[in-house]
């Protein structure tokens, strides 16, 4: 074989490598995405990018909505990075408590943290608040627009005052404060405006019509602003789109009327922790990300579907949204688009069947949280009991807990026998235990025949 033939074959070797390398890379990215909690750009920054401790140390950062939730955690982690802070919210006592925690736990002095009481609905005060911050620190490096309120109500049942309140607070208040701070950054030629938007600013989430509209408005405004500031490359305009995050925003959200509060707060255990979300936000700021998607699966997948495959996104939104709206109308507070919650059940006195009781305070959902989520998912299908039975509200916790422990001790764990078989055995055993409990219950003659 001559030299030219060997050289030609050698040139073909990388092509054979690529034949296997491309599918391998696709497989690796698919696995990464299955366990991802942020978009690929942010994941890359977490692995190979700059660290917040190095980039944010010594900077003056103004955080609105710093009394609780994401804003409070932002204050703590920024203090850990060595940033000087301006903390703003309506509740002055809570701000003072956050400041005291930052001073005690991190290497900050009292003068490194300025507390400014601020209400985004009082836009006339923004100029004086900005001047007070500039007078104290001399400049503002980063403004984090975090304050806002959410919503849980159907579009047609929500009053116009609620929509007006959401737009004035989430949109007009945010852009008005930005317009006061941004000229000083433009004068210095450097700075950053970071706005906490939401996944609801990308996708249309049911029960959040006004909230989603205000976040879509923020997305559009700051996308335009970013383009207008191309002559100032050192000024960062970044929007953060977190998914479900553990915070107090649900407790304070709007409902159908302005003065009406949420009767119950939805379960937040399935949501991303506030600490993890804030860490990703700071990583994005340190690496100058223009837009961040932060959420666990499958909400993150929904964001990519809306971006790259909107037809499929509409299909899944219609299917899941119908269930969410129906659950909400039936009194179930859990309203997240892709949560694992199912509609709870209770037992009533009926003629040979179990019925759903939407208004009951006691729910048929007392499964221990330490068990696999597939078990908690499947507890919505309850087997019918023959005859008339009484309410389960006084029996549910003890019966279900004892029943589950008994099945697990017998070796019928879902990881061994499969989820469907385990749930089938669980419901059969549960029905038997309920009947025995009701028959032996003293003083209740109407529960058995």
UniProtKB/TrEMBL annotation:
Molecular function in Gene Ontology: oxidoreductase activity
Record has Oxidoreductase as a keyword: yes
PROSITE patterns to which the protein is assigned, alphabetical: ADH_SHORT
Keywords: Membrane, Oxidoreductase, Transmembrane, Transmembrane helix
SUPFAM superfamilies, per the entry: NAD(P)-binding Rossmann-fold domains
Keyword Transmembrane: yes
Residues spanning the membrane: 16-35
InterPro entries for the chain: NAD(P)-bd_dom_sf, Sc_DH/Rdtase_CS, SDR_fam, SDR_family_member_7
A Pfam family of this chain: adh_short
Family in the record: Belongs to the short-chain dehydrogenases/reductases (SDR) family.
Protein name: Dehydrogenase/reductase SDR family member 7
């Amino acid at each position: 074989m001559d030299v030219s033939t060997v050289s030609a074959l050698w040139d073909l070797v990388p092509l054979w490598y690529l034949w296997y390398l491309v599918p391998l890379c696709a497989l690796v990215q698919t696995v990464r995405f299955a366990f991802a909690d942020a978009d690929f750009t942010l994941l890359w920054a977490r692995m190979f990018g700059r660290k917040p401790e190095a980039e944010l140390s010594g900077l003056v950062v103004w955080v609105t909505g710093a009394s609780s939730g994401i804003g409070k955690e932002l204050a703590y982690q920024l203090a850990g990075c060595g940033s000087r802070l301006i903390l703003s919210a309506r509740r002055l006592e809570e701000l003072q408590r956050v400041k005291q925690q930052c001073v005690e736990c991190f290497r900050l002095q009292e003068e490194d943290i300025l507390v400014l009481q601020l209400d985004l609905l009082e836009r006339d005060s923004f100029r004086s608040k900005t001047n007070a911050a500039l007078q104290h620190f001399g400049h503002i490096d980063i403004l984090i627009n975090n304050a806002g309120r959410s919503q849980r109500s159907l579009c047609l049942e929500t009053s116009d005052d609620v929509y007006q309140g959401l737009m004035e607070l989430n949109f007009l208040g945010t852009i008005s404060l930005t317009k006061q701070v941004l000229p000083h950054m433009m004068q210095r030629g450097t700075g950053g405006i970071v706005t906490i938007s939401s996944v609801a600013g990308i996708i249309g989430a049911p029960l959040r019509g006004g909230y989603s509209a205000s976040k879509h408005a923020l997305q559009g405004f700051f996308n335009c602003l970013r383009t207008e500031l191309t002559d100032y490359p050192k000024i960062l305009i970044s929007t953060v789109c977190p998914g479900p995050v553990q915070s107090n925003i649900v407790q304070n959200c709007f409902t159908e009327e302005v003065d009406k509060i949420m009767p119950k707060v939805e379960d937040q255990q399935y949501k991303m922790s506030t600490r993890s979300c804030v860490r990703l936000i700071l990583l994005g700021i340190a690496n100058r990300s223009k837009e961040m998607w932060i959420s666990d699966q499958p909400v993150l997948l929904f964001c990519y579907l809306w971006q790259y495959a909107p037809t499929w996104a509409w299909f899944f939104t219609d299917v899941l949204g119908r269930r969410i709206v129906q659950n909400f109308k039936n009194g179930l507070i859990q309203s997240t688009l892709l949560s694992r919650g199912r509609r709870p059940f209770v037992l009533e006195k009926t003629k040979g069947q179990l019925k759903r009781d939407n208004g009951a305070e006691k729910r048929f959902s007392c499964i221990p949280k330490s068990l696999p989520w597939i078990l908690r998912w499947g507890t919505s299908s309850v087997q019918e009991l023959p005859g008339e039975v009484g309410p389960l509200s006084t029996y549910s916790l003890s019966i279900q807990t004892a029943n589950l422990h008994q099945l697990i001790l017998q070796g019928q764990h879902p990881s061994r026998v499969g989820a469907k078989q385990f749930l089938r055995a669980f419901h059969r055993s549960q029905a038997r235990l309920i009947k025995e409990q009701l028959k032996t219950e003293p003083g209740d003659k109407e529960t058995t025949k």
